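Loading example: each entry is read as two labelled lines plus one structure line.
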Amino acid sequence: MRKRKKLTRPIGQFTFGAWALLAVTVLIPIFYGIYISFLDIKLSSFLPPQFVGFDNYVAAFKAPETWATLRITLAMMILGMLVQIPLGMALALVLHRNLKGSKIFSSILITPMLLTPVAVGLTFRFMFDTDLGIINWVLESVGFEKINWLGQQTTGILAVILVDSWQSIPFVMLLLVAALGSISPQLYEAASIDGATARQTFWKITLPLITPTLLVVVMIKIMDFLKLFDTLFMLTRGGPGNETTTLGLWTYKTGFIFLEFSRAAALGVLIMIITAPVYLLWRRSTKEIK
Amino acid sequence: MLNSKTVKRFAGLVSVSLLLAACSSGGTDSEASGEINVFLIPSPSSTSIQSFIPGFESETGIKVNVSETPYGEAHQKQLLSYQQKAGAYDVAQFDNSFLMPYCQAQAMLPLDKYLGDSSAYDIGDFGQSQQDYGKCSGETLGLTLSTEPMIQWYRTDIYEKLGLKPATTWDEYFNNAKKVQAAGFGGQIIGFGPNVSWWWMTMVWSFGGNLYDEALNPTVNSKEAIAATDFLKKLMTVSPKGASTANSDEVTSKFLGENIGAMINYSGYYGSVLDKTINKNEGKIGTAPMPKGSADITHLAGWNIGIPKDAKNPDAAWKFLEYVLGKSNAKAYLESGAAAIGRKSITTDADLLAKFPYLAQLEIPSSSRIERYPQIAVWPEFEVAAIDAVTQVLNGKSDSTKAMSALNEKLKPILAKEPK
């Protein structure tokens, strides 16, 4: 025991700086955010802030926008994952076969991951333009009517999912390729000797063994969608009206457009509460992988 | 023990250090050294202001430090600075929609005393509406940095080909657009996207309505506001499809880059007409007053610029404003690419009118009622609620009567938050 203590002491001393930095940059802002959510701070008001108890939380729960934007967030999250995970997995399975040209193919596929979401959002905004966008030009060329992509809720949400998927599928693919690589080839050999079909091999060997990684992917994607901002902001700004506004974007609007900092802090705390169980599940699933 | 020589050397070193420290701290104090810090928001106006700085510095010896912050975060930064009373800025450019929050917070220095004493600025060179543009509670908190009424823009070639004249009423405007559309062009364009509130409130005012009454009760469920919203939707039928998501910049670039008959937009966009990379229809752009509804209104927008109350060097700041925006430099200021300031001497100058024909639209007749961005601190929240409601109508999810009634209810608690 004594020996152990001696070993850990220098580590504690060396990591103190990092912990202090984390406390200053993460913990203090979180606690300060919680603290101001009980006040009535407005950037446009120069009056000293007053303690208002749970008023900001009550207002957030009563506001139809909170629920409407939460519904939009959940819709984007579910639809997004339905697109991204199966496609990411399909690509991972293809790459895992090490076919000719796989390396070039995977390098091309991960390119979207390297781009900044703001640039991607802006580029796609032009591409989705109803009159001049390349997407409608292609549609018209093959005989379809122009679609007002960003002008309606359904197509607006689809456009956001499409752009996010374009950037996120490579990430899903990379994690799953790594998971597939960790499966022992002997298992596949045994299955082949036993006469298992490709489908059976997938359902009985591949899927169960990559499930912990899939869970991590799902958790990360849930957290990503809960904080989806930059692409959405550049692409639709939450419009038309508030029809593609997510809870995160609504929090931004409350804080930085309405200048209602305390109300925004309360919404931020609500997002944190919603995310917490997902985070705990993620921690659990990563432990399982280890 | 230290000998006396060492002590003397040490004392000398300390004295020199203290002297240097005193000098350097004096260097950061803008008052002591004749420096001013100018907060600008990237725009043609801010670019023009900066072009006058070398001349001002050599004439007065006052050093000008400029910091530019994009529009999206500029006012938040200003408000934070004013709350801290740090005296970070001596001059600040701001949007007229922030005049009321700044006024309520008593963040800006009233400029009336300076204006009264300044023949170089010559406030008498402005019409009454322009003199009042930066006023709040009877005090001038900001000078006019640009005069940007909403006006009618049209394609002279298309109108000539179809034998059309710029519209004087909204009905004429719609009929013109219909004819242009029938000829295979885009009928007209306004922004039905994230800035739709700008056109919607213009219509509401023009149709004789108001957004709220004097007691700050919302009035967007009035028959005038409903008719205005219906008309806005009607205009969608004669607009290119892309207008439904376009913001004001995109409206302008579409009008200047495509074949669209007319546009309703702020005059400040004339800079884009002069930009050949944006304007593909050079020499074919005409301007006219905005069509009238049942009320003769002018929707006036534009930048303000003022001196924060916590400014460290307000007198030097005024000198700077007087120099850049004074009467003698007004012509050069416009020619340097800025959006025009509606001085009488500018809007009636024959040479300038020949070069910038839109200047005629800046002469606002006294009969026209001036409407500015609503002067309320809760405007951003009001605006988002209005955009949401109008979008429901434009997308066919709700009819105007229903949407405006719902909006009216929604606006009650928002307007109730406005400091009385």
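Residues 4-28 of chain B form the longest helix (25 residues).
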